Amino acid sequence: MSYGHNYTPSIAPEVILDIQKLPPCSAQTQCPQCRQFITTEIVTSIGNVACLVCITMSILGCVAGCCLIPFCIDNFKDVTHRCPKCQSPIITIKKL
């Protein structure tokens, strides 16, 4: 008998405490500075991979501006996780 109650078990989100294992997207962790449990903010920045892809595309003949495309694609950029409360950087994940 169900008595009209629908029980749906809730699944707690995974909190990643080892900052070396943070993915390249926002994740829940504990800030090493303020010790709060937070969901990280991510900031992308141009890194070595974007520059190498740009240079490679230039060498292959993509000189009409197409070689600049890697600077617009987040998958080619480095990712920095930041605490939304104290704004301190937690870790930077470099693509290369």
TrEMBL record:
Record key words, sorted: Membrane, Metal-binding, Transmembrane, Transmembrane helix, Zinc
Residues in LITAF domain copies: 11-95
PANTHER family in the cross-refs: LIPOPOLYSACCHARIDE-INDUCED TUMOR NECROSIS FACTOR-ALPHA FACTOR (PTHR23292), LITAF DOMAIN-CONTAINING PROTEIN (PTHR23292:SF35)
GO CC, any one term: cytoplasmic side of late endosome membrane
Keyword Metal-binding part of the UniProt annotation: yes
Gene Ontology molecular-function annotations: zinc ion binding
Organism in which the protein naturally occurs: Oncorhynchus kisutch
Protein name per UniProt: LITAF domain-containing protein
Lipid bilayer topology: Peripheral membrane protein
A Pfam family matched in the record: zf-LITAF-like
The keyword Metal-binding is annotated on this UniProt entry: yes
Subcellular location per the Swiss-Prot or TrEMBL entry: Endosome membrane; Late endosome membrane; Lysosome membrane
